[in-house]
Design a protein that fits this description.
The protein is an alpha/beta fold. About 20% of the residues lie in helices and about 45% in strands. The N and C termini lie far apart (about 45 Å).
Length: about 290
Amino acid sequence: MSIAAELPNRRVEAWKYSDLRAAVGEQKHVLSKGRDIIERLAPGVQRLQVGAGETPLFVERMDDDRHMDARSFDFDVAEGATLTRVVMQTGADIPLSIARVKLAKEARFRQFVLATGARLARIETHVDVEGEGAEVELNGVYLAGARRHADLTSVITHAVPNGVTRQLIKGVARKGGRGVFQGKIVVAHDAQKTDARQYHHGLLLEDGAEIFAKPELMIHADDVQCAHGNTAGGLDESALFYLRSRGVPEAAARAMLIEAFLVEAIPDHLPEVLREELVGHVRSWLGMAQ
């Protein structure tokens, strides 16, 4: 029996740029009980409790070749702990991931996502700042080539004072590719002195590329520092001309500019070997995309 009727399509606001029903089509999948559609498609919820003062690194590679790869996570980060999560989505026809994160007092959650897209790829993150002085860093890069769809969606909720959020998402799309960023930061009435900054920047590399971005701030407190920004456009022609005038071939010059644009979002605090792997994915994509 088809589950299409239970899957979200573009009429569902949170999925308006990513039509899961159309992507799944008539494929049969088992739906279990859960809080949302990705959890219901996943085989179970993976849970991780980070103890006070601990600093684990959690690396997740979504590189399976199966039709659907659905994953669900719950992370509970205790007082003074830091959880660093890196997600590399490079495989599957429909890779889906949802993570829910709870932060205690002075806890920290740092995440970086690299997504090369698929028929429909969606990496969704929900962070609840429940302890004072907690910090959130959500960065990401998407690379949407022809017939590839990459969706980075997040909701960060500040419920208590003195929280900090930093979010930087950068992405590129070629002809026939679609990049999606949906980011919402909610600052509750009691979350005074929250400092939240959210930015998305996209590059449309060819005619026929698509980028949809929806950054949102919902602020219910009056003593905060919050800002967001969004840009989408093409390569800087003056920078391209400069490189060409120095003898750099056009294809190489374009790749250099795109790489420099994207790697700014890769955090410096990641282990060097991991940073090199992430940059390698970017360079590989640029090489294949020439």
